Amino acid sequence: MSDGKTINTVLVIIAMEAEAAPFVQHMQLTKDEPSLLGPPLPAMSYSGAHGATKIVVVCNGKDALHGVDSVGTVGAALTAFAAIQAVKPDLVINAGTCGGFKAMGGEIGDVYVSSSFKNHDRRIPLPGFDKFGTYTVEAPECLKLAAALDLKVGVVSTGNSLDCTPTDAEVMKANEASIKEMEGAAIAQVTQMYGVPLFAIKSVTDIVDGDRTTGEEFMENLGAAAQALQEKLPKVIEFLAGKTTACL
């Protein structure tokens, strides 16, 4: 981040409404009616400011057919693509919850900042396509941010399933993943197209390599993880406000 571009507008992409609500309330953001992203996307947007820094939060919204949050890479990529066009941010933050790994020192409630983004369920064992499947995107070095806010730093590994198959586990180990989630790498691919810097802030709901069922542990800890995220995310905005990207 050597260019030191002034951070005038921050776009925060959060997949689920339950993950976004505490931050939206804390920052006193106003729901945009209609959404800045517009139809036919179900995505919602909330706008406000912290000092001179404009803040826009977007959520993927509800799937029209099934009535649940549109989680996963398709919703994430569509939302990111439309939001960047509409908002023209100086910086994008993908915030939300994730699975952590005890092998990497992860615990429930830990909050991580990304070092890079990779996919673990796009397995294409053909020359060239293998790296395309993983599609590694490096994140800005956020060492100052991590030190200031006591955040852990790790690789974000993205897939479209909440559970973890043995093959997924092998790929995530190869990815050196500290975080397992369902949107980050898709958003990273979009931000790379636009040349907009992106980092992720994720709080741990479940331990992927633990002895409990992922879905059960996720639902049990979602509220606490969302609260942990809410405690850190406003501090991230405070850290960024009025500064340049060199502050990371």
Spell out the key features of this protein:
248 residues, alpha/beta, globular, 5-stranded mixed beta barrel, 10 strands, 7 helices, Rossmann fold
* Overall structural domain count: 1
Report the CATH architecture.
Answer: 3-Layer(aba) Sandwich
Question: Order of strands side by side in the largest beta sheet?
Answer: 5-9-8-6-10
Which structural class fits the helix and strand makeup?
Answer: alpha/beta
Head-to-tail CA distance between termini: 7 Å
Radius of gyration: 17 Å
Helix content: 25-40%
CATH class: Alpha Beta
The name CATH uses for the topology is Rossmann fold
Q: Which whole number gives the mean pLDDT?
A: 92
**H/E topology pattern:** EHEEEHEEHEHEHEHEH
CATH superfamily: Nucleoside phosphorylase domain
The beta-strand count equals: 10
Largest sheet: 5 strands, mixed, barrel
Give structural notes.
- The protein is an alpha/beta fold.
- It has a single domain, classed as Nucleoside phosphorylase domain (Rossmann fold), CATH 3.40.50.1580.
- It has helices at residues 17-26, 73-87, 129-134, 143-149, 166-174, 184-194, 214-240; strands at residues 9-13, 30-31, 44-50, 53-59, 91-100, 111-119, 137-138, 152-158, 177-181, 198-207.
- The chain has a five-stranded mixed beta barrel with strand order 5-9-8-6-10.
- Helix 1 packs parallel to helix 7 and helix 2 (73-87) packs parallel to helix 6 (184-194).
- The protein starts with 8 loop residues before the first strand and ends in an 8-residue tail after the last helix.
Short description:
This protein is an alpha/beta fold and 248 residues long.
